[in-house]
Amino acid sequence: MAAGFAPHSTETSSESAAPVASILLRVPGSLTRHNHPMKIGLIGLPRSGKTTLFNLLTGASVPTARYEATRPELHTGVARVPDPRVDRLSALFTPKKTTHASFEVVDLAGLARGERASLETKEFRSADALLHVVRAFEDPTLGAADPRRDVADLETELILADLEVIERRLERLEASIRKRRTDAEVAEQALLRNLRPQLEAEHPLRAVELTADETKAIRGFTFLSQKPILHCVNLDEKAVADGPRVLERFGLDGVAGRPRTCVGWVSAVIEMEVAQLAGEEQQAFLADLGLAEPAIHRVLSDCYALLGLVSFFTVGEDEVRAWPIPGGTRAQDAAGVVHSDIARGFIRAEVTGYDELVAVKGSWADIRARGQLRLEGKDYVVQDGEICHFRFNVAK
Ligand SMILES: Nc1nc2c(ncn2[C@@H]2O[C@H](COP(=O)(O)OP(=O)(O)OP(=O)(O)O)[C@@H](O)[C@H]2O)c(=O)[nH]1
Ligand SMILES: [Mg+2]
């Protein structure tokens, strides 16, 4: 049984003799995905441009602070990851539907200096990565922009928030261990006592090497300084040509080299204008600005990478689709992202590369004829950009 792509009828493989039941994909209610969409949390000082960026990332049109007083409201949306490979495959297969990879974005009220309490929000805690919007544009009411200071201050807030969590937990553990000593609590206490001095020395937890067991043991705390972070400098519209030099200009070189940390830039106001235009008009406007593509595309791909995601593709007449998987995902688990039944009845994956498939204009027959179709087992690690076609067998 083939799934994950619908081959042209003349190209079905010879595996059809296996006693398999047909599985109808996309039957309402039949999908039991065991993967959750990954989530990016927008964070930053008030009026740094978070909601403006949220709108650009998700295509929403939430009013920004220029029009509304700051209200502690929460916006959630889905960001589509631009990928020219998906567009190319879609042009080759002309499917009924084309689906890009996506992730969730949550936008919260600004975090005023020293007001750590708002970091307790569940949405921050459950984010898989943070997108820190750093103001570099002029705003007379907010004083001079200082991205380097804001990056350092935010890092401090995250670290202090984690330190408070650890201290509270240690107090409880001490009391509890005094009453009744358990190995689990003693181990937890030892681990937290090791982490505390790291935070006190202003090392975010994302920079601390942990064993797999330790990572698991502290997962429940959802430490904020452990989350991968993208500091996105929101440039003044006049400075957009300086984008590529944003690190030197604001002294952020040292920041970009930190573990699981990324520095990017955008000029949100310019990007809003870019987003209003399409086709050649947009290209001409971008060329005037010295940009090859909208800067928001890079922010989206950076976020995707920060979440540790890569894409594999499924292709066919019905749908061309990019599927987000964490880097290092086994073929059977990748199959499970498409449908849990495909993972359960996994036989093997037929895999080819994007370039190979494009070179033969999407002809699966030619890929076979050229010997470029690989048969991979369940433990094969799916690579970014591979086209997968899963064979599976589910008894009725
Ligand atoms: N000049 C300039 N203004 C910007 C830019 N990005 C955002 N702004 C303006 O800054 C103000 C705040 O933008 P928002 O996107 O609402 O900022 P926010 O971070 O969501 O603000 P809070 O939710 O109140 O914390 C608005 O007036 C925006 O139009 C930019 O790149 N350049
Ligand atoms: Mg906002």
Under CATH, the homologous superfamily of the largest domain reads P-loop containing nucleotide triphosphate hydrolases
The dominant shape is flat
Percent range for β-strand residues: 15-25%
CATH fold-level label of the largest domain: Rossmann fold
Spatial strand sequence of the major β-sheet: 3-5-2-6-7-8
Taken together, the total number of domains comes to 3
Provide the CATH top-level class of the largest domain: Alpha Beta
Question: Unreliable runs, pLDDT <50, ≥5 residues?
Answer: 1-34
Describe this structure as you would to a colleague.
With 396 residues, the protein is an alpha/beta fold. The N terminus is likely disordered. It starts with a strand and ends with a strand. Helix content is 37%, strand content 18%. The strands form three sheets. Strands 3-5-2-6-7-8 form a six-stranded mixed beta sheet, with helices on both faces. A four-stranded antiparallel beta sheet has the order 1-13-11-12. A three-stranded mixed beta sheet has the order 4-10-9, with helices on both faces. The site of guanosine-5'-triphosphate has 21 residues, from helix 1 and helix 9.
